[in-house]
Specification:
heterodimer, A: 120 residues, mainly beta, globular, B: 110 residues, 3-stranded antiparallel sheet, 9 strands
């Protein structure tokens, strides 16, 4: 069965960076885009970007261009989301989600979420 | 890219039908038949319930249906049940292969 397992909670200081991992299993890792979505406390869902695990190609929401970096390691079937120059309002639950694969950029399987807390 | 507009909250009684709207522009909702809907129970991962405006993934109840007219997409939940109480989000494909979420709608089943 398809599973996306994310790394554990992180606590970071303002200005630092965080790297969250998302390990995939149960399907062909290189066959589906992986997206990253976040939810800040009391806020809605926000799309950050996607990575094509096959080519390594990426696309980011314009707001996050330059501060988010999506990478992958095909040998370990793991995708990564790195967020730099952290601010307190980056405190959020970060999800990875698999693309449905129909071309409409919908997400059919989700990781359990990784809580990133930014605090001095 | 601004978030798609959804009502912040809606409510309904068991057995009723409700329709949640998702309004964008010709650059997103109106420009592509690529609108999805997600159900999000607090503490759980979101769940895809509608994709490509009207399609239901396998295993999703046929009480959920989607439609679109112009720049507004809609999610209808018929025969409301207590378990439908959740947050609902729409998304749309936007130019350049990006995605935009709606602001979310908190559904209360009275």
């Amino acid at each position: 069965q398809v599973q996306l397992v994310q790394s554990g909670a992180e606590v970071k200081k303002p200005g630092a960076s965080v790297k969250v991992s998302c390990k995939a299993s149960g399907y062909t890792f290189t066959g589906y885009f992986l997206h990253w979505v976040r939810q800040a406390p009391g806020q809605g869902l926000e799309w950050l970007g996607w990575i094509n695990p096959n080519s390594g190609g990426t696309k980011y929401a314009q707001k996050w261009q330059g501060r988010v970096s999506l990478t992958r390691d095909t040998s370990t079937r793991t995708a990564y989301m790195e967020l730099t120059s952290l601010k307190s309002d980056d405190t959020a639950l970060y999800y990875c989600a698999r693309d449905l694969g129909t071309g409409d950029l919908s997400f059919d399987y989700w990781g359990q979420g990784t809580l990133v807390t930014v605090s001095s | 890219q601004s978030a798609l507009a959804q009502p912040a909250s809606m409510s309904g009684s068991p057995g009723q039908s409700i329709t949640i709207s998702c309004t964008g522009s010709s650059s997103d909702v109106g420009g592509y038949d690529f609108v999805s809907w997600y159900q999000h129970h607090p503490g759980e991962a979101p769940k895809l319930i509608i994709y490509e405006v009207t399609h239901r993934p396998s295993g999703v109840s046929n009480r959920f249906s989607g439609s679109k007219s112009g720049n507004t997409a809609s999610l209808t939940i018929s025969g409301l049940q207590a378990e439908d109480e959740a947050d609902y989000y729409c998304t749309s494909y936007i130019l350049g292969g990006r995605v935009v979420f709606g602001g979310g709608t908190k559904l209360t089943v009275l």
